[in-house]
Structure formats: C-alpha cells, structure tokens
Amino acid sequence: VIALIAAALFLLQSNIWGGVLTQLSSIVDGVDGDLARLRGSESRFGGFLDAVLDRYSDVSILAGLTYSAAVHEELSAHMLVWLVGLLAVSGSLIVSYTRARGEATLQGSFSGWAFSLASRDIRLFIVMLGSLLGLLWETLLVVALLSHVAVVGRLIQSRSLAGSSQDAEKGSK
What we know:
This protein is mainly alpha-helical and 173 residues long. Helix content is 87%, strand content 0%.
C-alpha cells in the first residue's frame, strides 16, 4: 500500500514525497518478514505472496517515476525517458527472477558484491535518493544499468553453478 501511494505521488509530481514513501515501503517490507518469524506466523505462502507483491510495488514505483521524469523532459527526450523507464522495470523484474530461478534450478545462490548493488533495497534507495535530488531520468538509468549488469553477471555465474551441479550429479552416479 505504501508503494502504491509512492507511485501515485510520482504521478502527481510530488517526487520528494514519492521518494520518501518509496524508502519507507522498503523499510516496512524488510520488517514484515522478521515480524512474521518473531510471531511464529511465517509461511511459505506468505513468503511467496510477499515476493509477488514486491514485484507489483517495484513496477508501480518505477512506472510512476518514469511518468514523472517524462513530464519534465522536452518532447525530443520524452521517448528516451520511457525507454529507460522500461529498461529499469524489466531489469528490476529480471534481477528478481534470475535470483529465484537460479536458487530453485541450480540449488545455489549468487554471491559477490556486484549482485548486492542491484538488490531491491539498493534499487529503492537509489529511487529515493534520485527523487530527493530531482534527478529522475538519471535515477531510472542507474537502476536500469545496475539491474541488467547484475543479470548478465548472474548468467555468467549460473554457468559455473550449473557446471558444478552437473559434476556433483556425475559423482553421485
């Protein structure tokens, strides 16, 4: 709900408050899982639902930010902003997808500082920071670049994870 309000604020050109609520939504999202564990109400469905709602939140925030950035640009740069916004949205979704799919398929996790640079918390922090600084399309560009670089890195690392999985399977036969 907080993320949807943040997206609405971006649509209304209230970028500073949109950025603040984006960060607040990230903080609340980080706490809800911990709270469920402390209360003993953690469930696999709850984790799945949280992940799905996170993707909707990400798309709505980035779409709102893209709209706001496009409104502020001259007509000649208008389409470029929409393209960069689309790349930011797709990168955010694919970062999350590659993590989930990599862990499920390859039974391994992606490690290294480069992957944490495109984590959801970092992406939302960048959105907040860029919104406060008034650097809207530049923020979208940074999110897009970090996300897609992380995806390429995960594809490269997944190749070695897949190779070690195959080696383990051959050894067990």
